[in-house]
Amino acid sequence: MTMFINKMRFIFALVIVFIFFSCASTINIGEGLSPAELIQRAQEASDRNRYNTALQYYEALHDRNLSNIDLIITAKYGIAFIHYKQKKYQQSRAELNELLEYYNTPDAELLPQQFKVLAQIVLNSITEKEKLFRPFFMKKE
Hints:
The protein is mainly alpha-helical. The chain has one domain: Tetratricopeptide repeat domain (Serine Threonine Protein Phosphatase 5, Tetratricopeptide repeat, Alpha Horseshoe). It is 71% helix and 0% strand. Helix 4 packs parallel to helix 6. The chain starts with a helix and ends in an 8-residue tail after the last helix. The model is unreliable at 17-22 (pLDDT under 50).
């Protein structure tokens, strides 16, 4: 009986390891994908709650377009928003604030303005969530 239990534990551990590695796996992102295709696939993955896959597409968008500030900002916002959806509020806040620094430059009017507005909306939402979920004894007077 003990041998049977040990085998079952071993099988259970293998299943857990398999699930962990299949969830954390890296995807193969083809080099031929256009920025629009990378964005589309990131959004589709995000819509299906496949956040790690979405992050990989946004990271590829960023890394493959280092000379295009519009695509860099698009990728940075996408990454920060995924972290927001994952409830990684501190990380998202830091990334959104970093993104907003791009809008404190002389060329800010040339940047895509929708991401500035969206970043501010998400930052406000993070602040509101923190107020709602802050324990009663920690509320500021």
